[in-house]
Amino acid sequence: ALKQDSAMFTAKNNLVLARGAQRNYSLPVVPMNQVERAQLLQTLGLTAVKQGDIETGKTLMRDAIATHPQHFEEAVRALSALEA
Length: 84
Description:
This protein has about 80 residues and is mostly helical. It is built from 4 helices and no strands. Helix 1 packs parallel to helix 2 and helix 3 runs antiparallel to helix 4 (about 75-84). The longest helix is centred in the middle third of the chain and has 17 residues, at about 35-50.
């Protein structure tokens, strides 16, 4: 799908979910803007938490928050819940 449309966020997100399910928590090499990068890092973080890799998930959430060009409320809430 990404070969046909490299801007398709759903395909990027699905690729990140599949990699996360394999405990591969690195982002794939695909074109993405800063906001997409933050969202994909959050997806990886949530996937890591679901896999039981809590510390990795927290680190990925922190990276997502730091990467987003504006306040990323969704990631902040998720990280706060993990740290509580």
